[in-house]
Design goal:
15% helix; HotDog_dom_sf; five-stranded antiparallel beta sheet; 51% strand; 1 helix; alpha+beta; three-stranded antiparallel beta sheet
Length: 131
């Protein structure tokens, strides 16, 4: 029987550059589904770190899109375990832009933001197999 290391406070962080091929709207805006896919990736690593299994995403209980994500940004996503059940883990997610593309300066210009810009928050539940 495997022993779970799932504990509240366990946090996993991923960063990713958002390529221009993912822009779907005027102003190089990227759809919200892109961030939700990143949340799925970071949730998978949380399950691996905590339980030695990829687990399955069961549901979101809340998703808030606060600011836009644009092609050329570098986005950081975090998932933190906030509740541990027998097979379920409740996670809180946050996505922040840490670098922003600056096409107004030149095609390849970008800047590191002084403070990360929180663009999306969510809560979700993952489940892992027992034993």
């Amino acid at each position: 029987m495997k022993v779970s290391k799932a504990t509240t406070g366990l946090t996993v962080t991923h960063r990713r550059y958002v390529p221009y091929s993912h822009a779907h709207y005027a102003g190089n805006l990227v759809d919200g589904a892109y961030v939700l896919a990143l949340f799925g990736d970071v949730a998978t690593e949380v399950c691996i770190q905590a339980d030695g299994d990829e687990g399955l995403f069961a549901s979101y209980s809340d998703v808030q899109f606060l600011e836009p994500l644009r092609a050329g940004d570098v986005v950081e996503v975090k998932a933190t375990i906030v509740r541990v059940g027998n097979r379920s883990r409740e996670l809180e997610f946050a996505a922040s832009v840490v670098c922003r593309g600056r096409p107004d300066r030149s095609e390849s210009a970008a800047e590191v933001l002084a403070e990360p810009l929180v663009i999306t928050r969510a809560k979700g539940t993952v489940v892992v197999p027992v034993g």
